[in-house]
Fold:
Amino acid sequence: MASDAPIPLPWLDRLQAAAVLRQKQGRDRVIAPPAGLDVCSNDYLGLRRDPRLAEAAAEAARSFGTGTGAARLLRGTTPLHDGLEAALAAWKGAEACLLFNTGFQANSTLIPALLEPGDAVFSDALNHASLVDGCRMAKARGASVHIYRHLDLADLDHRLAAWHPTAPPEALALAATDSVFSMDGDAADLPGLLELCERHRALLLVDEAHATGLLGATGAGLAEHQGVHGRIPLVMGTLGKALGSFGAFVCAPASLREHLVNTARGFIFSTALPPPVVGAALAGVHLAQTEPWRRERALSHARHLRAALGHPDAPSAIIPVPIGPDAEAMRVAGRLQALGFDVRAVRPPTVPEGSARLRITTGAHLDPAEVEALAAALRATLLRP
Structure:
């Protein structure tokens, strides 16, 4: 039964004021269902609707039920959870792995779980919101937060060097970065970050959400692509993008996993991932490794689209199309949607003020003719007054 309890007046006033401001700024969000050709999701390998994932999910439901009914530390762990963690650890070249329910939960949970008062976290200026919120929670616990310029290793080096003499002797430092940045499609220099962190004795956390399944000889991610596979101490990844399912994971040394099991509140106090989700993810991991044509096709499409638009190459399937003003980004996206392409405008606060854009993605589900048609539509729409 729907509740008809009134919202207290001070809260109602605040909600109405916020709504007026959003409307004045043209920033009301609308939850729109999928329509047209998918060129905006993160289904990079085209696995989301693969019948083999659906069958794996169905078999998991038949064997273990539709839900776990409990957190992992109660009775929420099935053999599927253990199997998926083992498969992900092996793929990432790590000792151990721990599943989380979402990427946001993983990042926002593990950073405060790792840091204590006096410690410090160093975060790339364009890191995902989940890493940003993890830093904020660590700050609330007494750690200091330092933001270094996007992809600027010299700036990070300087900030780490300046922090060490002022820190307590027992203080620890954590550097956190996306591997592939979700709004720009550019990539971190992981070998450079690793060398810098080793020199400053800092722990390195890399969010491989938009690289897992897509980059590297086996699809293990940017670390594999850049030749530091298995050397990153903390690697977060997601199961709901290239792998076609849902959830997230952190790969780490066994001692770090044990620490997270005992301290990561988002893990401890959350019901475990449902068996059908875990079963589908296991199938997705297998297919990502054994069907390399999927990532090759997605990346080939991205290279073609970048070349057609005159954009510099990048190692991802994310192509940002900068527009600028919010209203103009919405207008251009609307024209492309009318042509049958599911393109969405990305506006502040997701991106910095004045940098609204279209975020185009390519996946294995597309064929070359569709990518060429999209390129032609983009060129025509962007040139049209």
